[in-house]
Design brief:
By secondary structure, this protein is an alpha+beta fold. The chain has a domain at about 10-100: Intergrase catalytic core (hpI Integrase, Chain A), CATH 1.10.443. It is about 40% helix and about 15% strand. The chain has six helices and five strands; from the N terminus they run H-E-E-E-H-E-E-H-H-H-H. A three-stranded antiparallel sheet has the order 1-2-3. It has a two-stranded antiparallel ribbon with strand order 4-5. The model has no long low-confidence stretch (mean pLDDT about 80).
Length: about 150
């Protein structure tokens, strides 16, 4: 899950997963907040493998990668997972490993921050932000390392 930088709304409605063999990458087509056209976003090989394992054992066929359950969560459906179900799934998994107060967006913030530390433009593209200022405002840490200005003069 730490490989994910998608918004919860993007994850619940993912329909296309494609492997780009020439570049040896995996991509998703996601429709983000305030977007009218899907964008292509990278997916880690670890996440791809987990999704493929899920799809191989999922009891229903669906256009959506993540589907909902009916009847107190016991009957799989072909409908997309609801946002509230995604929240509950993340919180349930977090509690199982002893973490409290984890939200789905925390994964996006973690990965976005780590990417921004390396390259803010890369983070902007991966997160799907139109303006780099959005990325800088939400994902760049303002901590400065000691000695940063040494050797400037």
């Amino acid at each position: 899950m730490t490989h994910a930088f998608y918004q919860t709304t993007e994850v619940t409605y993912i329909q296309r997963l494609r492997s780009v063999q020439a570049e040896k990458t995996v991509e998703l087509e996601v429709l983000g907040k305030n977007q009218t056209e899907a964008r292509t976003a990278p997916l880690s090989h670890e996440a791809y493998a987990s999704i493929q394992a899920w799809l191989a054992r999922r009891p229903v066929e669906s256009a959506y990668l993540f589907t909902s359950f009916a009847g107190k969560g016991h009957r799989p459906t072909a409908r997309p997972m609801h946002l509230s179900a995604a929240w509950r799934a993340v919180q349930r998994a977090a509690r199982r490993v002893g973490l409290a107060h984890v939200k789905p967006h925390d994964f996006r913030r973690f990965v976005g921050t780590e990417l921004a530390k390396r390259d803010i433009r890369l983070a902007q593209k991966a997160l799907g932000h139109k303006c780099i200022e959005t990325t800088a405002r939400h994902y760049v840490l303002d901590e400065l390392a000691g000695g940063l200005t040494d050797g400037l003069y």
